[in-house]
Amino acid sequence: MTGSFRLDPALFRETAISEETKGINAFIIDLMKGVPEWWDVGAQTMRDIRARGEGPFPPAVKSPRARTIEIDGKGGHKIPLRIIAPDNPKGVYLHIHGGGWVLGAADQQDPLLDRLADNVGLACVSVEYRLAPEHPYPAGPDDCEAAALWLIKNAKAEFGAEALSIGGESAGGHLAAVTLLRLRDRHGYTGFKAANLVFGAFDMSMAPTARQFGNERLILRTIDMERFIDAFLAHGEDRRDPDISPLYADLKGLPPALFTVGTRDSLLDDSLFMSARWSAAGNEAELAIYPGGAHGFIAFPGALAASALDRIDGFLMATAL
Q1: DSSP state of 65
Q2: What is the DSSP-derived secondary structure letter of residue 59?
Q3: Which helix (H) or strand (E) holds 194?
Q4: For residues 260 and 240, what is the distance between their CA atoms, to the nearest angstrom?
Q5: In this structure, is residue 3 part of a structural domain?
Q6: Quick check: 240 and 205 in contact, CB under 8 A?
């Protein structure tokens, strides 16, 4: 048996970027000019700015049907889980939010989770994991692992559905991959049916596009990644440890995955490399590349985001139920 794999180079050319996407990117860069650096003002101050919708992302719209429960984490630590569920869910989606392991919150993702609840029929459970620098590695991964184990035991009783899937954006994509590996290696569990990994960070030693992106303030610059990783890994950990950088893990026995990334994302290589390794390990992988898409592009209006969200819906409908 032989096979071939080819990326379409046209996707990466300037001519592939729509005028609408160019305009959105210019808007983001202009908007970011007045935003302070989180390491200057403090992580909590920046979290508060984001919660008020004063950063680059639109204000978070809260879902009226969202509810929060608490579960026990490692050492009895309480972990809030934000739940948005349709009537009679067909499956359960464990969601892990982004924000560089430092920023972000489970209640800032309600529109995305409302969409998955309505369009796919998933009960969405978003983890309020502990954030760096107050709680560096392994606190965040430990909380996500605990949430996954809780769902494995309780999804049927809580939601009437047993089909489990997982996903996240940026740092959330990283933590989703780490969680799947921990479930396999520490608990012998490989029952998650799908992984939705959206512009994830899979290499804490930083892949070429992350190193080379530079200072253009299009959401995520090289310095942002450096500062986020330094906060997350505060104790000098090996940045290529598979529990820290899943790109370097044995990836056998993992579920079908959709990797979503834009060509103007500093984490482009993370998705390119991880999707290839995912496939090379014998797993199903789809790589969806969006010309001109910046890091976080699905949070902004426009045809590019709509196309990506539609593909995510379709992927989860095909694999997660």
Answers
A1: T
A2: P
A3: none
A4: 23
A5: no
A6: yes
Angle, alpha carbons 246-251-252 (nearest 5°): 165
Q: What is the pLDDT of residues 259-303, one digit of tens each?
A: 999 999 999 999 999 999 999 999 999 999 999 999 999 999 999
Q: Is residue 1 part of a domain?
A: no
Confidence at 50, pLDDT banded by 50, 70, 90: confident
Is there a contact between 293 and 302 (Cβ–Cβ < 8 Å)? no
Q: Which residues constitute the domain of residue 122?
A: 16-319
233-261 tens-digit pLDDT: 999 999 999 999 999 999 999 999 999 99
Residue 311 lies in a domain: yes
Strands of 78-84's sheet in order across: 67-72, 78-84, 122-127, 91-96, 164-169, 195-198, 257-264, 285-294
Q: For position 124, which CATH number holds?
A: 3.40.50.1820
**pTM (2 decimals)?**
0.97
Structure tokens at 284: 């199903």
Total domains in the fold of the chain: 1
Active site residues: 170, 265, 295
Q: In this structure, is the dihedral angle defined by the CA atoms of residues 185, 191, 194 and 196, taken in order, positive or negative?
A: negative
Q: Give which of 311, 316, 211 is closest to 268, Cα–Cα.
A: 211
